[in-house]
Amino acid sequence: MSPQASPHPSLYPAAGAARLRLLGASACALLLAACSSPPLAPTRPVATGQAPVMACDALAARLNLTATRVVSAQRVEAGQLKLPGITQPMPEHCVVRGLMNERTGPVDGKPYAIGFEMRLPTAWNGRFFYQANGGLDGFQTPAYGDILGGGPASNGLLKGFAVLSSDAGHAFDRSSPIGGATFGLDPQARLDYGYNAVAQLTPMAKALIHTYYGKRPDTSYLVGSSNGGRHGFVTASRLPRDYDGILVSTPGYRLPLAAVAQVWGAQQFASIAQPNPATGRPDLRTAFTPADMALVSRSILARCDALDGLADGMVADLQACQAAFRVDRDIPVCAAGVATGTCLSQAQKDVLVRVLAGPKDKAGAAVYASLPADPGIAGNDWAAWKFVNSVGPRDAIALGFVFVTPPASPAVLSGQGNTLIDYALKFNLDTDLPKLTATSGAYRESAMAFMTPPDPTMREFVAHGGKMIVFHGTADPVFSALDTIAWHDAFRRTHGAAAGRHARLFLVPGMNHSRGGPATDQMDLVDALVAWVERGQAPEAVVARARGPGSAVPNPEVPASWSPARTRLLCPYPQVPRYTGRGDTESAASFACAAR
Predict the structure, then answer these.
(1) Is 19 inside any structural domain?
(2) DSSP SS3 for 67
(3) Which residues pair with residue 282 across a beta bridge?
(4) Cα separation of 481 and 471, whole Å?
(5) Do both 276 and 329 map to the same domain?
(6) CA angle (309, 520, 130) in 5-degree steps
(7) Catalytic residue from among 36, 154, 226, 551
(8) N or C: which end of the chain has fewer CB within 10 A?
(9) Is 274 found in the same domain as 133?
């Protein structure tokens, strides 16, 4: 595998980064907590709680905000609500649902609004939590305050935050087979999805909090994964003074280009796939069977497992593995040309090399980042994104409706003309890639303008004292961890010695898209972010847990050879966790963060 190629120059300008302090973490003790540096002078006050100053059912009548309509406000008794995987029942709180900027779309004649839900705990901790949703949005997800990772054992509401969630300005169209992206026909809905919903909702939510509690939040946090992680990057760039701390996982901060890489990868898999008898189209799942992917995973482990100092079924030194592993040398080729689970055909190896390297334009420049070689490549989520979502209800329709300008005709993607897989397989880098930066008529902003952060190095956010924690699974099949590393390298080049005081990146070995895979994917970084923002305690390491059999929300991909409750140290990039040579190899306490 070659090192990650540089971003496509015409679509994403280079930016910069600086070296993080390299601090050990052997003093980490508590599971699912973050190890922190000695306190520095905090840049924000420690938040203080406040009881409501009115009854929940009085809130709708008291709130008077422009273009905002409260649909309902209802009190939920303590203990009335219990969520899967979380032992404690939810506290007493007020659920507020409403709409902002209601209108009729001028293109499709459909109703649009920014739908929102807020959950306001009676025992409020003085903090605001914006729960940024993922995917194409369009759903009103309950505002519990997802703290990210796999099988979270708590949430923002339980911790005492006032939590907001939103559909980002459009509702999923259940009447259409491509309902997840039809909002892309509406120019304003595109902008709401890209950045404007957060910009509109943030002051509204803070005003609502003030009305209910009699004071504004002391500190504000935004938390999101995938597209929600993109929201975090965009918000740090566009609203640099509105949030004190931002936690993102799996950040799709260049989502349109990642979608291009997805459909381009589908074209590579289609070249060796068998036809689906029902449709006559390639069945991408036949390109690589689960046994084939398990072979790839074992081959990566054979070359890379011990590079971090311990052969434990995980590759903690991601970059060392990219230099050490080669598909052509390290995966056996089948002499008969037919894969057997112990070898790959030469055609499969050629496709795998291309998919991991990523698409190039006609000048040979990288369109998007390469994908890492990581044993989590055998994860169920990796296969789902590569063989199903890339040609189905995610990447193809997102490109057709939301990311290209002007958007495609609904007939092209609904089955009345071409199917979704046809659209994906016919996407042409030479003719279609420029549509990501195009504008046309009422579509005054291109996808690369409304979907990506104007300043990915977040200069104003840093100047304002903002803190950001990013974590990313090294086996994410959609948003490459190497792309996030490239962002962080650029951030450090730009901010020099100050970089580590404002942003830290933690890589999660084996984790797929946001969670899952053969990984220790359960952690709580919300508490770590609060400690950093309000007490000046920067996270020097994070302890993450596996979710094997017996866990509240088990991860079926935790290998049987691991302890079901294995813990591992996650280190701030570019450090890697290394076994100290003594102690339980299943415990994070036996590891320390070290320079590569």
Answers:
(1) no
(2) coil
(3) 275
(4) 9
(5) yes
(6) 130
(7) 226
(8) C
(9) no
- Residue 346, token pair as written in the block: 């030469």
Cα angle 155, 156, 157; round to 5: 95
pLDDT in tens, 280-326: 999 999 999 999 999 999 999 999 999 999 999 999 999 999 999 99
226 is catalytic: yes
Q: Kindly state whether residues 386 and 284 are assigned to the same domain.
A: yes
| Known active-site residue 36 | no
What is the share, in percent, of the chain residues with pLDDT greater than 70? 91
> Could you tell me if 163 and 268 lie in one domain?
no
Does the residue 298 lie in any domain? yes
* Catalytic residue, candidates 93, 472, 495, 513: 513
Active site residue 513: yes
Return d(Cα 250, Cα 363) in angstroms, integer. Answer: 29
Q: How confident is the model at residue 413 (pLDDT cuts 50, 70, 90)?
A: low
Distance set, CA 381 to CA 174, 234, 364, 473 (Å): 25, 26, 30, 12
pLDDT digits 0-9 by tens, 432-491: 999 999 999 999 999 999 999 999 999 999 999 999 999 999 999 999 999 999 999 999
Q: Which residues contact 287 (CB under 8 A, 6 or more apart)?
A: 269, 270, 272, 273, 348, 351, 387
Does the pTM surpass 0.85? The reply is yes
Tokens 């449709």 belong to residue? 279
> What residues form DSSP beta bridges with 128?
162, 220
- Given a contact cutoff of 8 angstroms between Cβ atoms, the answer to whether 46 and 534 are in contact is yes
389: left (phi over 0), alpha (psi -120 to 50) or beta: alpha
The domain of 286 spans: 257-441
SS3 (DSSP) at 26: coil
Tokens encoding 373: 């070689």
Using one digit for the tens of pLDDT, what is the confidence trace for 126-178? Answer: 999 999 998 899 998 999 999 999 999 999 999 999 999 999 999 987 777 66
Tokens (6 digits) for 285 = 């799942």
Which of 218, 308, 395, 476 is labelled catalytic? 476
271 and 325 inside one domain: yes
Count of domains observed in the chain: 2
pLDDT at 418 (0 to 100):
60
Task: Examine residue 345 and state whether it is found in any structural domain, yes or no.
Answer: yes
In the listed set 217, 248, 265, which residue is the last one of a domain according to the structure? 217
Instruction: For residue 279, give the 3-state DSSP assignment.
Output: coil
Query: Is residue 41 one of the residues assigned to a domain?
Result: no
β-bridge pairing 245-249 and 274-275: unpaired
Is residue 278 classed exposed, middle or buried when 0-12, 13-18 and 19+ CB atoms within 10 A define those classes? exposed
Q: Where is the domain boundary, 413, 441, 469?
A: 441
Residue (of 503, 480, 507) closest to 491 by Cα position: 503
The closest alpha carbon to 466, from 252, 239, 253, belongs to 239
